[in-house]
Amino acid sequence: MATPMHRLIARRQAEANKQHVRCQKCLEFGHWTYECTGKRKYLHRPSRTAELKKALKEKENRLLLQQRSFFPPRVYQHWRNQCGKKGQEKKV
């Protein structure tokens, strides 16, 4: 069974830990959400679709950089021209 001294120590530790706690409502440090008296702040976040598109674009750019470093510039340009003409007939 907890003695009054243990309760006092536990309460002091909880108060000390509050300094590192961020309220999920007002985004301020030092109190829990259920203790908050402030207004909810709007935090703009990009949509999941936008995040996925950004990740895909970064991956493509990384692959292009790897290909450029692998091939000499003249060979890379020729390869890029050939792959970029999908759907078009090659000139003979």
The biggest sheet amounts to: none
Termini separation comes to 91 Å
How much beta, percentage-wise? Answer: under 5%
**How many strand units?**
0
Structural class: mainly alpha
Shape: elongated
SSE layout and pairing:
Layout: H1 4-17, H2 48-70, H3 73-84
GO molecular function, one term: zinc ion binding
Protein name: Zinc finger CCHC-type containing 10
Pfam families: zf-CCHC_3 (PF13917)
Label this structure with key terms.
92 residues; 3 helices
Short characterization:
This protein is an all-alpha fold and 92 residues long.
What can you see in these coordinates?
With 92 residues, this protein is mainly alpha-helical. Helices cover 53% and strands 0% of the residues. The model has no long low-confidence stretch (mean pLDDT 79). Pfam families: zf-CCHC_3 (PF13917). It comes from Piliocolobus tephrosceles.
